[in-house]
Amino acid sequence: MALSATTGVPRSGKRADDGVERTDPKGVVMSIPVELSSVAREMARYGFAYLMTTNARGAPHAVAVVAEVQGGDLVVNGIGRHTRENALARPVVGLVWPPPSLAEHSLIVDGQATVVGESLRITPTRAVLHRPAPAPTPRAPGTCQSDCVELGKTGPKSVS
C-alpha cells in the first residue's frame, strides 16, 4: 500500500474521484464527493459563493456572487469586466461556497463557463464538500495545517 507524500499515512490507491469520502488519520471526514445532480440541494445551505477565474498571467480573480440554478447549469448575473474577460479567454472556473461554520464543509464546484450577455452560465464538471482537518503531526508555523486531497470530476451528470 502506498503512503501519502504529505502525511505518510497509507493510501488505498483509489483515485480521489472514485466517489469515496476522504478522512484524515483520525477518521474525521474532510471531503465528500457530491453528485452533480445534488449540487442545487447543497447550494441551498449557503448564502453566497466566490467565483474564481484566472487572468492572462494565471493570477486568480475572486468575486462574491449568488448563483442560481437554471436547467442543468449555474447562472451568475451581473458579471464585471474582469470576470467577463477571464471567462471568455479561460472558461474553466470554480465556485467556492464558504462553510456556514468552522465545523462544516465548504462546497466547491468546478465548471465550464459561457458568457451570455451580462451573465455567466456555468456547467458543473465536478463538486465536493470539503473542510480542513488537523494535520496528523504538528507543522512548522506558516505551513499548511490541513491534510487536503485533490479530487477529480464526479461525472457528466446534470444539476436538478
What would you call the shape?
A: globular
Determine the number of helices (DSSP H or I, runs of at least 4 residues): 2
The CATH homologous superfamily of the domain at 22-130 is called Electron Transport, Fmn-binding Protein, Chain A
Low-pLDDT regions: 1-17, 147-160
Largest sheet, described in full? 9 strands, antiparallel
Query: What CATH architecture label of the domain at 22-130 applies?
Result: Roll
CATH topology of the domain at 22-130, which one?
Pnp Oxidase, Chain A
| Helix vs. strand class | mainly beta
Strand content: 35-45%
Helix and strand pattern: EEHEEEEHEEE
- Please report the first level of CATH classification, the CATH class of the domain at 22-130: Mainly Beta
Helical fraction equals under 10%
Radius of gyration: 17 Å
Overall pLDDT metric: 76
Distance between the termini: 39 Å
Total number of beta strands: 9
What are the defining features of this structure?
mainly beta, Pnp Oxidase, Chain A, 9% helix, disordered N terminus, disordered C terminus
Structural summary, described in words:
With 160 residues, the chain is mainly β. The chain has a domain at 22-130: Electron Transport, Fmn-binding Protein, Chain A (Pnp Oxidase, Chain A), CATH 2.30.110.10. The protein is 9% helix and 35% strand. The protein has helices at residues 39-43, 81-89, and strands at 22-23, 29-33, 49-54, 60-65, 68-70, 73-77, 92-97, 106-116, 119-130.
How would you summarize this macromolecular structure in one to three sentences?
The protein is mainly β and 160 residues long. The chain has helices at 39-43, 81-89; strands at 22-23, 29-33, 49-54, 60-65, 68-70, 73-77, 92-97, 106-116, 119-130.
